Amino acid sequence: MPVRPAALAAAAGAALVLLATPAATAAPQDTRHVTESVTVDPVGRIAADGSVTVSGTYRCTGGTGPVYVSSTVSQTDPSVRYGVGGTRAVCDGQEHRWVNTGTPDSVTLKPGAAHVEATLMELRPMGIVPLPTFHARHGQDVTLAQG
């Protein structure tokens, strides 16, 4: 009979140790949301030919497919965005610069206030069709300057 109380005491002691352990150590945390980011510089450029250049920084960790920094710009109507190029990203955990240049097809943007949204997106292989996986996104009010 003395074995039974000893086993119960050991089990109770183990339960107390588990209860005293912080929850953060019980399950691994997804650090991708902390270590992956994209920023937008506060000033973009409009060239004489109408092309727009926007830039910023990004940081991402390894992926299984190609990763890109894409960007859009809106000016008068925030619900209408125009694509401004894309840059292939290097996902090594380090901070890198990105610069996208493009000419919107159906509108001429003007110097002044605008909104730029940058997205860090991976084309992850899933069967025969790669599916987009978003790593980070950031919107920023910017000034588009001539030149």
Automatic annotation (TrEMBL):
Extent of the signal sequence: 1-26
Swiss-Prot/TrEMBL keywords: Signal
Entry-linked InterPro entries: DUF6299
Domain DUF6299: residue ranges: 35-146
Protein's recorded name: DUF6299 family protein
